[in-house]
Amino acid sequence: MNSNEKNKSFKSFILITVIQVLSAYYLYRFFFIPPDMPALDTEQWWGPYPMDLDHDKSIRPLTIEFSDVMINDLRERLLHRRPLQPPLENVGFTYGFNPRYLNQVMEYWHNKYNFKEREQFLNQYDHFVTNIQGLDIHFMHIKPKNIAGLEVVPLIMLHGWPGSFREFYDVIPYLMAEQPEQKIAFEIIVPSLPGFGYSQASVRPGLGPAEMAVIINNLMKRIGHDKYYIQGGDLGHTVGSIIATAFPENVLGFHTNFPVLLSHRAALLYITCGSLIPSLIETKELQPRLYPLSEHWSRLIEESGYMHIQATKPETVGVGLSDSPAGLAAYILEKFSTWTNPGNKKAGDGNLLKKFSLNQLLDNLMIYWATNTVTTSMRVYAESFNEKQNFLIFDRIPTNVPTWGIKFKYELMYQPDTALSFKYKKYLQSTVVEDGGHFAAMEYPELMAKDIIQAVIKFQKFWKFEKQESNETPPLHETARTVYEFTVKSINGRDVKLSDYKGNVLLIVNVASQCGLTTTNYQQLNELHEKYHQKGLRILAFPCNQFNGQEPGTSKDILNFTKDRGVKFDLFEKVDVNGDNAHPLWKFLKKAQSGTIGDFIKWNFSKFVVDRNGVPVERYAPHVNPLDLEKDLAKYW
Amino acid sequence: MNSNEKNKSFKSFILITVIQVLSAYYLYRFFFIPPDMPALDTEQWWGPYPMDLDHDKSIRPLTIEFSDVMINDLRERLLHRRPLQPPLENVGFTYGFNPRYLNQVMEYWHNKYNFKEREQFLNQYDHFVTNIQGLDIHFMHIKPKNIAGLEVVPLIMLHGWPGSFREFYDVIPYLMAEQPEQKIAFEIIVPSLPGFGYSQASVRPGLGPAEMAVIINNLMKRIGHDKYYIQGGDLGHTVGSIIATAFPENVLGFHTNFPVLLSHRAALLYITCGSLIPSLIETKELQPRLYPLSEHWSRLIEESGYMHIQATKPETVGVGLSDSPAGLAAYILEKFSTWTNPGNKKAGDGNLLKKFSLNQLLDNLMIYWATNTVTTSMRVYAESFNEKQNFLIFDRIPTNVPTWGIKFKYELMYQPDTALSFKYKKYLQSTVVEDGGHFAAMEYPELMAKDIIQAVIKFQKFWKFEKQESNETPPLHETARTVYEFTVKSINGRDVKLSDYKGNVLLIVNVASQCGLTTTNYQQLNELHEKYHQKGLRILAFPCNQFNGQEPGTSKDILNFTKDRGVKFDLFEKVDVNGDNAHPLWKFLKKAQSGTIGDFIKWNFSKFVVDRNGVPVERYAPHVNPLDLEKDLAKYW
C-alpha cells in the first residue's frame, strides 16, 4: 500500500465510522429518545364562537330522563324494525352479530326492558354538569358518607368506547363500602367523555384523547381536586395515561385495566424481538397471552374493523346507528360478546348473557340512544388518527406517576410488565386474572374494586416512601451553581476545595497516560500553563481510566509519568467521568455544558472552561488541541 | 492451511453455495412461480339442502317491482328519520358523508324521487332469473334487433360493490346503437352477482369471488354462450378476472376498468422496487398516479375502512343499513363522492351531483333497499378474506385471455401495464383517461362504451391472428414422440437424420473443450464407447458454448481438440441448448426429461439416455461421470 492508498483507506475508515456512529445514534434516538411533550392548550374553547369568557362555571345537578316521546319513538322503531336476512348456516357470531339472536334482544328491549325502572336505577347516583372550555361536561359524583378518621381518596373513573358511565355502576358499591381496616374512603367521579352520552361534543375538529385529558383534568380542578387517582380502560385508559403524562403533578396514581403501549417504539421492538426467545421477557404461564405474535395480530385485525371505519368515516357509519336501534344494538353489543372472550364467536347467542344481563347491556345502549351520541362518540377515533396523532406521541413520553395494571385473560392486547415500564417508570404491579375481557368493570365488578383498593394502598405507600426520600438533600450536582461548591482529591490524596480557585479561569480536563492524544495534550497543556498562569489560568487534570483502559496505573504511576513530562499544572486523583459513579464535579460539568450528541464524555482529554465566577462556559471535544483554545480563552483574561 | 482446514473451508464453501442456490430458488418460487389453480366445483350447491338435482333450469322473466307496501314503509322511515347531530365545522366530507347534505338527499328521496317512474325506467330492459347451483340468479338480457351481416358479440357486464346492474343503464344504449362500420352487434347480459339485488344469496359460508365466477360462467352457458366477452370493474373485475383465469376456454376477451393486481407478489415487488427509479416502469405523465407510494397507500387506508369491517363483521354493520334508509344512503353514496375524486371530500355536498344525478344514485340504492340485500352483498368481503383467500390466489395465476384496461385518473389504485402483464400475458392495451373515478360506467358512459367497442375489435383481431398462427404447424419439439423425428448437423456440416440411429441406445451429451469436467468426461465417454459400441450404444456429443463460453472455437477447432483425445463417438455442430434458439432436439429432450429444479440445462456434460425406441428415458446432471452410468445402462442391452 503506498501512502496515497493508506490515506484513502484511512479516510474510508473514518467515513464508515462516522456513518456507523451516526446511524447508531439515530436508531437510538428513534427507539429510545422520547419525543417532546406536545403543547396542550388548557383553555382551548370547544363550544361555538364567540368564546364566552364569563360563561357559567357552576356545577348544576342533572337527572337522567327517558322521556315518553323518546320511549315511544324507540318502541315504534323496534316494533317496525325491518326483518333481517337470515344468517349463513351455523356461523354463530363469526360474521358479526347473529341476526337471529338480535331478534331476541330486540324483543326484550321492546317488551321487557322497563324504561322507567332503569331510569330510576341510573339516577341512584348524583349526576351533574358543568361547562368546561365551552362544553357541558356530565359526571356522576359519589361522596363518602362517613369520613371520620379516614383519608378521602378522590378517584376518577374513565369509561371507554362503546361504554359509558354505566360501566361503573356495579363497581361503585364495592368501592363505597366502608373499609375501616384500610382507613380510606373513596370519593368517586365518573364523567361522560366529551361527545359521549350527557357530555356535549365539540363543534369543531381536533378534540382527541389528549384534548379530552385537558378537559378531564380541568373538571377535577373545578370539582376541587388538585390531586387525584385515575382508573380507566380502553379510551379511558388512553385519556388517563395522557393525564398522568401531561399533568403528573395532579395524579396520585393510575390504575388501568388496559395496560398497553400502542406506539412506544422501544417497547414494541422489545416485544417483537422477544418472540425469538419469549422466556426472556415473560413467564411461561403468560407467554401464550402474547406469543405467537401472528395469532394475536390476527385477532387484532379481526377486531379492529370498527376502529378503521370510525377513524376514517365516523359520520358515514354513524347514520344507520343513530336512526336504527337494531343497528346500534348489533354494532355495540357485538363487542360485549367478542371482546369478552373470542371463544364466544362460536355460540349462536355469542354467550352474551353468560357474563352480562340484558338490562346492563341495554342501559349502556340507552345512554347512546337517548342522547343520540353514537356518531359524536365515534369522532374521537378520527381525532386520534389525524395528522397530529397526539395520543400516540404521549404514549412514547415517560411518566413517573405510579401505575398499576390489571390484566384480564381475554383483553384485546397483552404486554409484559417489562415492556410497560418503558413508559410507566413507576410501574408498581400487575394483577393477572385468569378470565375476563375488555369490559372488566361490568364483568368482574367485585374483583375490579378489590384491585383498585389494593392499588390505592400501594400508591399511598409509594408516596410516603417518596416523601422520605425527598426529605433527604438532593444530590449536589443537581443543585450546585458553580464549581466552587465541590471538593476533590489531589493526586496526593488531600481534599481540595474548588472554592480555593475563586477568581481563576479554569481548564478542567480528563487525562490518560496511554492515549494517542497524550503526547500532544500534555505538551500543549504545559505550554498553556506556562503562558497564562500569570493571567490566572489554572489547569485541573483528572486522570480517568474509562476510555479503553488507557490510564491503568496508580496515583504513583501517574505522578511518575507526569514528572517525566515536566507537568506543572494541578493533578487530581483518578475519577470516573461517566456513569452513576462519576465524580459529582463531572456530573455537574456535563449537566452545565452538554455535548453535541449526548452529554457523556466521549474520550480522554475532554476540556471544560470555567470562568472567573466558577461557571462552566465552554466545552471542547478531545480532538481539539489545548493550544487551539488560546483564541477563545483570550476573552477571559 | 493444512489439508484438514482446506477440507473444512471447501465444505463451508459448498454449504454456502447450496444455501444460496436454495434460497435463490425459493425466492424465485415465492415471487415468480404461480400457485396451483385452486380446484373449483362447478356444480357446488348453494341453496338449502337437500340438493334438488332436478330443479327448474328454465329462464323465467322478472319484473322489477317497487310495491306500494315497500314504498310506504320506506317513506315512513324517511319521514321519521332521526335528526342527525350537526357535523363538525367546515369538514365537508372529510369525516364521512356530511349529515347536513344527507338531509337534502333524504328530502329528495322522500318527496321527489318518483318510484313508479323509476320502476318503469329500470324495466326498460328485459329481466330474467334462472336457478344456478341452487340460487335464483337475476340478469338483464339485451339482444340486438338487427343482426343481418353483423357478428353478434355476447358481452357480460359485471357490477361491483356498492353498485348493481343499474351501473350499466347509461352505457347500454351506446353499445346497442348500430355500429355498421364495425360489423358487430352486442348481445348484453348484466347479472346481479349472488347476494346482490335480485339474485339470491348463499345459505352457507364459502361463496366468494371465485365461486361467483363459477356461477356466472354457468349462467352464460345456460343462456347459450360458450364463448363470450367480459366487462367489469371493482368486484366485477375480480370475478371477471377469475373467469378469465379458471375458464379461459370460455372467454374471448376481458375488458376491465379496475386493472389492478391485488396480490401478485412479483408485480407488487416490481412496483415497490420501481419507486426507486419510477422512470424505469412508468412514463413521466403517469408516474404521479402511482408514486409516491406512501401517498397512494394512505388514500387506500383512508378508503378501506368499509372493506375491513365488511370482511370481518358484515352482519354487524349490515343491521343499521338494512333498517335505516338514511344509514344505507350515507354508507353507499359516500363512495360515489369520494371514490369519484378524492378532492370531492372538501365540498360540503361532496360534489355528488357534479357527475351523477340523484335519480341515478337512488335507483342504485333502491336495488339494495327493495331487496334488503345490503348485508348479503357485504358477505362477499368476508368470503374473500377467509382462510382460503381464493381470489388472491387466482390473482397470481397467469391467463392468456386477451385483456384490455381502461385507467381513469381517480381510480383507487393504479398499476402500470408492465406490472399487469405479469398476470395478463396478453395484455393488449390500456386506455388512459385524464378524469373519472371508480364508477366509470355511470360517470362516463359514452367513453366507456367506445372503449369497450374498440377493445372488442382488438380482441377479434387478436383471435384472427392467433388462428393464423395456430394453422401453422406447431413446433416439432411440441409434437414429436421420439428423437427419430429430428435432423441435426454433423460437425462436418452434413444433415444427419436421427432416425438413422433406430434400434440403438443413445447417450446424448452437450460438450465443451475448456470445462473443468472436460478431461474426465471425454476420457470416460471414450471408454463407454469402446466398451458398449458393440452392444449398440451410440454417443452423440453436441458442443455448446452457453456455459461460461467454454466452447469458443469453430468446428475445426473442436475437431482438432477431439482428434487429440482420440474421440471415436459422434460429434455434431455447435448448438444452443437453452433459450429460444435452443436446437429443437434439445427442446424436445428437456421437455421429455425435465430436471430437478427446472428443465433448463445446468452446465456442460448434461447427459440424456434414449432407449432403443427413440424415447428419452433418463437424464443425468453434469457432475455424474459417464462411467457411473454403466449400471443404469445395463438394463438397455
Automatic annotation (TrEMBL), chains A, B:
Quote one Gene Ontology molecular function term. Answer: epoxide hydrolase activity
Q: Which Pfam families match?
A: EHN, GSHPx
Which residues are in the Thioredoxin domain?
A: 477-637
Segments crossing the lipid bilayer:
12-28
Question: Which keywords describe this protein according to UniProt?
Answer: Aromatic hydrocarbons catabolism, Hydrolase, Membrane, Oxidoreductase, Peroxidase, Transmembrane, Transmembrane helix
Q: Which GO terms describe its biological process?
A: epoxide metabolic process; response to oxidative stress
Tell me if Transmembrane is a UniProt keyword of this record.
Answer: yes
PANTHER family referenced in this protein's UniProt entry, alphabetically: EPOXIDE HYDROLASE (PTHR21661:SF35), EPOXIDE HYDROLASE 1-RELATED (PTHR21661)
Q: Which family does it belong to?
A: Belongs to the glutathione peroxidase family. Belongs to the peptidase S33 family.
Protein name per its UniProtKB record: Glutathione peroxidase
Which species expresses this protein natively?
A: Bombyx mori (Silk moth)
